[in-house]
Amino acid sequence: MKKFINSADDFLKESLQGFGAAHKDIVTCYYNPNFIIRSKYAKKGKVALITGGGSGHEPMHGGFVGYGMLDAACPGFVFSSPSPDQMIAAIEKVDCGSGVLFIVKNYSGDIMNFQMAAEMMTGPSETVLTNDDVAVENSSFTTGRRGVAATIIVEKIVGSLAESGGSLVECKNLGNKVNKNSGSMGVAFSSCIVPAAGKPTFELRSDEMEFGVGIHGEPGRRRDKIKSAKEITNELLNAILEDLKPENKDDILLFVNGMGGTPISELYLIYDNARKMLDNKKIKIARSLVGNYCTSLEMQGASITITKLDQELVNHWDTPVHTAGMRWGM
Amino acid sequence: MKKFINSADDFLKESLQGFGAAHKDIVTCYYNPNFIIRSKYAKKGKVALITGGGSGHEPMHGGFVGYGMLDAACPGFVFSSPSPDQMIAAIEKVDCGSGVLFIVKNYSGDIMNFQMAAEMMTGPSETVLTNDDVAVENSSFTTGRRGVAATIIVEKIVGSLAESGGSLVECKNLGNKVNKNSGSMGVAFSSCIVPAAGKPTFELRSDEMEFGVGIHGEPGRRRDKIKSAKEITNELLNAILEDLKPENKDDILLFVNGMGGTPISELYLIYDNARKMLDNKKIKIARSLVGNYCTSLEMQGASITITKLDQELVNHWDTPVHTAGMRWGM
């Protein structure tokens, strides 16, 4: 197993300790008994945005804790849901006093544990469930569609509203709107290796790709021979646009996301191919994001996310943000 | 070859086009007859900072063109030097009127071509040569030590001085100081694949790593069995510290850099291991940088860079910067 690692058991703790130390101006990390990443910007009176999920998708979610995005993140072990206890501890740590909005990707384990935490806690809470992956209905760990990279778009836009004093219900409604306006789909050229497993999650031949792959290596629509970047981009885009059905006047955010093992130069090449296809369809790219944001450890692959924008969403996208993984305006 | 690519010939152009479109608020890209990335922030009266080198190390250097860093970058083909014509065209495009500082990594091809450009141009120019890689003296494409990730630290700090009105000689002297204060060393778990070659640059067995690897896959100090993250970090740090000889009172910048195919969670784990070792040696980490900044396409691997800091360097490190690859304060 070719990894920078000392032991599979300590992998997450050591990585989090490094993260916490490198970004101590933004976050405080807790390790005992629960792993929690808390924003130093969390403040009384705002709606607290809390999320979590299995680790292995970094910078998601810990990298988006900070000003203008999340108040806390609960990292589970690699590809494993965080526990309800962990979530309750996170709620106590942020304690903003205006309710808690959980942002949860649509995986059965995550949903169950966040639901238990919501029942165990005393204050008010709401949940935004993301399910932007248009590849397949139902999957290995999911009933319905999987929640993937659009979760980050939800976190940025709702984070902005919460920072500016939006109420719990307003934040929930905006989160649902962003999720409804978003579609994603990805492709993998290689599997990742979960440290505790020590071997690839799945095997692909040297000329094969998994089309519509999940961020834990779940099967997608099909296995296929490697295609050109244009053919891959075209198929990903068409699947997303078929689902979102943007109209001519719609502005969109185009987000090309790397899975962890793909050079950023290839992500920009995908962006270029997508941009030309969208131009032909008279769909206007109003905002862009390119990079490794929602990853699957060292998986070689990429995904495209499109979010239909209106002025409200653009305004919240543009507000200042200061996290380890996304920063502008401050 | 598992890449997002349409043809090896068009790889760089399509990638640059995507980069230029995604970051049109920061840069203007030119394609004909020369590839040039020019900052929209370049302004009359300042010293122009121009760099270049083979592509494949993204975000270096194009990702550091913008406010507070570079005025222009000349991307050569993957792992190939840019041409003197390309550099002359870049000089004409920025034309700031207070001289040009070339920041050049120590590779024979880059040096020769930048030297030719300096002779061909009419205005004054100076050059800062980076050679921070402590792994080996002389290498496949280098006489002396290789220039690697510390080049980015030079670009940020000298970029700040140039932005605030520093003269050509002041910028040159500061660049030389940062380079002298910096040391780097890296390790590879896998080779990258240059698109035009279509196959790995070198081969490593499933349990092997290249210790002291260059950013084009050049051999390092030795091939060895994969070690624990602690052992690798310890050896990299000791090699750098032996070279830099920081004193107890020195503050440092600790920069853990990914080669392109390593998950960021592993980079934070290396950071954590390095942090503890530096604590033990009473060396204070005053600033940190963790991420994929100076890459080798999809190579699995990482490098550590240490820069000894003083108040002047810290002040310039902290000033606002707005580039695709590094952004804060604006």
Tell me what the structure shows.
2 copies of one chain form a homodimer. Helices cover 32% and strands 24% of the residues of chain A. With 330 residues, chain A is an alpha/beta fold. In chain A, a hairpin with a 5-residue loop joins strand 1 and strand 2. The first copy, chain A, has 2 domains: 164 residues, 3-Layer(aba) Sandwich (Rossmann fold); 138 residues, Hypothetical Protein Tm841, Chain: A,domain 3, CATH 3.30.1180. Chains A and B meet through helix 1, helix 6, helix 7, strand 11 and strand 14 of A and helix 1, helix 6, helix 7, strand 11 and strand 14 of B.
Features:
homodimer, Hypothetical Protein Tm841, Chain: A,domain 3, Rossmann fold, alpha/beta, about 325 residues, 6-stranded mixed sheet, about 30% helix
